Amino acid sequence: MKRPATIIIGFIAGLAISGVLGDLIIAASSSAGRISSAWSISKAEKFYAGGNFSESLNEYEKALGKVKPDNKKLIAKIKNNQALNVFAIADKAKDKSQIKKSLELFNESLKIYEEIKDTQGAAEVNVNIGEAKKALKELK
Could you tell me the superkingdom of the organism this chain comes from (predicted)? Predict the structure, then answer.
């Protein structure tokens, strides 16, 4: 009778030879990345809800670095949320340059939503752009 360790080693060797082991490692790595970005987004949302916009912005920045480039919808959402944080900070401080920065981020998000033909996402960003433009106009 084979020992359990021998069976496990044989099983792993079989996976490696068949190429499945590599696929499993890639899948696990991908899942870990998704979990990590989801964790950062969750933390960012909690900070935003609590009014801690700087920390929220930092967490969205971390999340953006963990998202695969082909996940355009999530990238657009993160950029919109980053812009909301920048805008919240800028509006409170009455900082025109930061409101303009929020508009740049909103427009980056809008461009992606339009590229992937997400009309609902684009509509939400357009509302945010309108609010930022209104705030900017009020400061002039």
Answer: Bacteria
- What end-to-end distance do the CA atoms of the chain give, in Å? 84
Please say whether the beta carbons of 77 and 121 come within 8 A: yes
DSSP state of 54: H
pTM of structure: 0.77
CB 39 within 8 A of CB 4: no
Cα distance between residue 66 and residue 32, in whole Å:
10
Q: What is the CATH number of the domain that holds 128?
A: 1.25.40.10
Provide the domain limits for residue 76: 7-12+19-139
